[in-house]
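Record 1 of the preview.
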Amino acid sequence: MKYFILKEIVNYLSINTQNIKSIRRIDNNLIIIEFNNKNILYVDISKSNSIIFKHNKILSSKKDFNAPFDVILQKRFNNSKIESIELYNDDKIVNIKVSSSSSYKKQITILQLEFTGKYTNIIVLDENRVVLEALRHIDEFSSSRIVKVGHKLDEVPKQNFIPKIEKIEDIESYLYQVYEQKEKENLENLKKQKISQIDKKAKKLKSTIEDLPKKEDLEKESNELYEKANLILSNLHNIKPYQKSLKVYNYQGIEVELDLEAKQSASKYSNDLFKKAKRTKQKASNISLEKDNLTQKLEYLLRLISSIKNATSLEECEFLLPKKERNQTKTKKSQTCEIFFFEGYKILLGTSQRENIYLLENSKASDFWFHLKDRPSCHVIVQNTKKEIPQSVIIQAATLCAKFSVDFSGTYEVDYTQRRNVKIQSGANVLYNPYTTIVIKF
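->
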């Protein structure tokens, strides 16, 4: 953060705060400080972008932090009285000096927030500026400025320049804007990252679709293999052992030369050709279905990109494409549908006819099923063991159903009911009753 902003923050805190009610870490580099009158401040000490901000809601902790730093932080500053707040050494270092009467004598502790580039850190000091704990410990092998428990803290080398001073009319409003800007930047970066991931998959899938053989070519190949096998079979008496080729007249009366497999008998070779012809014919009959399934998968990825582009929060982005855990095993190849998690519920989305059929056949009677009203759409299943699911989950599942079934935003009706009320007619075609309809707009 810039010098003049920190100066304004220090002035604001000096006027408006007298006590620290509580302080704790809620993310790796983020602490929350609650002063008197429920005045809450967040300090993000990330090296790349260290900031102080305010938020309309209380940000929750991603996990419990119980390192020695966290223990000392809370022990020394919870329910403490603020003695002074200043910019230490007239640099980008905020010092909050507090006193605590929890022991038999007055105990002075300093919270030093350093916004100084490579020295960015949160350090807890005693009244003699000896390090009690720090977010980042730095030994003599890493830097000439040591940050180590029990070691008196060296000063941060002062920069030889006069900082630019600007006036902030309302520092409190500014601190709220800092968070909004931070979230906006984080959201845009996350969108770029996730869209890049999906785009790679989409390009690979598009290439696979383009490389699929044509049905007509496969049928032609199958017919040629059948004809070759039949011609060899009908001329076995003319073929000598280890013969490499055979000249015969085909069914159109044209003389052709057929290659033979010298290493095996002609009868076995003709049988192999029949098998290959049968496989090729089967592939020809299935190629359209395979292409349809891959095309539907590609459409899903393109809609996923669109949904992420239109996402308004980090949570929405993570819901649509969750971050993979480091130890998560690769299950994508065997995955038979798209899986989402929301408020503890598992939501399954079918992106093709094959996946829709799978969902219908493998869902339980108590699960909830979603489908666009009176038009083709993907199927959505919310796994459930009770009679009802929360309204928030219904809205989320219905929104997924609509977003991944249509190409344009608008207002759509989505029907939903328990799976026991859905009767399969053929494939993914169903009849259902009773049901409830919800209107989704996006």
